[in-house]
Amino acid sequence: MNRPAVAKRPESDGAGDAAGRLLLGLIAGTAASVAMTAAMRRLFPELPAAEQYPLPPREILDRVEPAAPFPAERSLQTLLAHLGYGALTGALYAALPRRPSGFVYGPAIWALSYLGWLPGLRILKPAQHHPAKRNLLMLAVHLVWGGALAWSLRELEASMKDVFAAGHDRDHP
Is residue 9 part of a domain? Predict the structure, then answer.
């Protein structure tokens, strides 16, 4: 019985083109946002009781969309917006021609956001007007995010060159 010829897979890893890099950045940014959210959850109870009000992702969404169409789902909307922003900034990181350390990029995103465009658009007060311990929490979780972003992106890019690279399949019937 003759088996059909198997088409040879292209040798390109797919991550070399701009679209591939952006897609991997979106994935890595999302994964990093999950790590960041876990860090937020661990650090939030350490804040003084008076500072244990919703963290900036929720405050931002409440300001941008004050009359939520589905108030009961506001936490889910906040989580999705948080993951979406992490994915977007992860894609930007992946597109950089020379990537800085994630431990530089994460705090840079914090500074550009909380000292830049968020107060510039009057969404949040500038970070220097937030409680110091909340700022420290947010800086710490942006370090986690930046480190997780850089590591995730390196792993995804490397996987396309080795464990998911072209080769001869041997486990087909």
Answer: no
Name which of 114, 135, 109, 123 is nearest 51 in CA terms: 135
In a 13 Å sphere around the CA of 71, the CA atoms on its Cβ side amount to 2
Residue 30 lies in a domain: yes
* Cα distance between residue 92 and residue 132, in whole Å: 28
DSSP state for residue 11 in the 8-state scheme: S
Cα 12 → chain centroid: 26
Helices 132-159 and 18-43 pack at an angle, to 10 degrees, of 140
Neighbouring C-beta atoms of residue 124, cutoff 10 Å = 17
Q: Over the stretch 9-36, which tens digit does the pLDDT of each residue have?
A: 344 555 568 999 999 999 999 999 999 9
**pTM listed for this prediction:** 0.87
Domain that holds residue 102: 18-159
Q: Are 150 and 113 in contact (CB under 8 A)?
A: no
Tokens standing for residue 155: 């792993």
